[in-house]
Amino acid sequence: MVKIRRAYEALFLGLFLFFLLITDLRYLKGWPVSLFLEATPLVAVSTALTTHTLYRNLTWGLLIIAITMIVGRVWCNWMCPFGILHHIFGVIGNRRNTKQMIEVNRYRKIYALKYYILAAMLAMASLWIIPTTLSSPGRIYAAYAGKELPQKGIARIFAAVTTGVAEAAEEHKTGNSTLQIGLLDPIALTVRSMTTSVLPTAQKATESIYTEPREYWQAWIVGLIFIGLLVANWWIPRFFCRALCPLGALLGVFSRFSLWRIDRDPVRCTDCDLCLKSCEGASDPHTDLRKSECFVCLNCIEDCPHDALSFRFLPRKASEVTYPAVGRRQLILAGLFGVFFFPMARLSGGVRKNFNKAVIRPPGSVAEDEFLRRCIKCDQCIRVCPTNVLQPSLFEAGVEGLWTPIMISKMGWCELNCTLCSQVCPTGAIREISIAEKLGVGPFESKGPIKTGTAFYNQGRCLPWAMDTDCVVCEEVCPVSPKAIFTRNVEVTDRWGGKLELKRPFIDPNRCIGCGICEHECPVKDDPAVYVTAIGETRDKSRSLLLSLVEDNAQDLVSI
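Predicted structure:
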């Protein structure tokens, strides 16, 4: 069985790397490149809490949960690419003898930390439940007393409860939840690390991964975290999986229902503890098995010299520790930490009134509050972007937006006829759009093109404005038609008294889509004279330009 498991490990790691490498403009071609992200049960559960929806592709996560409830945490050691990498690094760095291996693989209290991390993250995703609970009675009464419900008697009561709770939940989900599981979800963490750090580093050596070199903002931080977690295996085997992984904690909760598990025959067992020598999950197979910690690696069965261990269907309950070893008080405190941390983070600004002008989201992104309830920080959109304009944010979008994608136009620009980022997003943070919708043509002509922001000029740095030097680069590269950048001929007097004819550029805010190519190509490279900010973006009307707001208000007054 161990050889079969290793074959599955090679298969799933190879499949993950294959999908990662073909997530490129050259090779994408309809491959299900986000399959591993969609198969993460933690993503399915968390996004269901924050958005009140279960995306079609995320039902793969429900399949993994079902498998876990049958045979235990096979995902962690048979299919998870990050878990497989930990296994490999653990083998490479192993310098311990048998006695040391037995001691290092005993269960430790610190391994309960992952359950507290999971509790805090789920609390941040489900904070909306508190205001929903408080406002539901009023909503239920209003629904029952109203005339909209056709039912009578008990049926009317049930209909009123359903309607009232649904209305209260829909009202309070906005601004009362955030999705932070991507910080430590193993698949999102691996894709993010590979995208921003590992693959660009490999490109430096091989020059065969990208058509052009990639650079990513603060990628060294992501890379150090990734390498640090892998190297930690040399001190504590599978440290991330045992102590930090929230997905492992979620699967540990469901694995308590598993029908098959490792069982020990106390008659044959001689208490030699050799079953601990290669135990991946530190699940104590030498005594009562910690069911929620077992990775089903089956190494203990191979290592037992007396055939005292077997993988059995419905063994005795008396020989297992069914529940995770967590303290009730500590679990409540972890949940309270999540409940209080999210409001503190949100009220620190960065989402509504004091949003950062540099937080320009990819085209097709939903409004910022909804975006933070959907984005799992996998940076799959960053990986597929052909021009390198998408970058992982640090704290530009606040602590909630750590590692979420933003557009940095000095690094690239948004290609006019490209919607790849919307095709690979696994959770709908970037909704899937067509080229026609992005450009605002055909059936979308009435809505106009999707705008990610608006360009502005710093006239003190612009060559025609500040230095009496001809330059029309920004106008030449502007891709929209008619161009959003136009020039006006002016006559100026130079420092010697001579007359010069210059073309000075201006922005038409109604035409500008915020693609950023003007900023990228501006010859003033250190701090471009033309720059793009998030103002005027399509996804959030509250960030419209002031003139647009005045115009909309005027139209409303006319209609009244």
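Summary: The CA atoms of residues 316 and 497 lie 99 Å apart.
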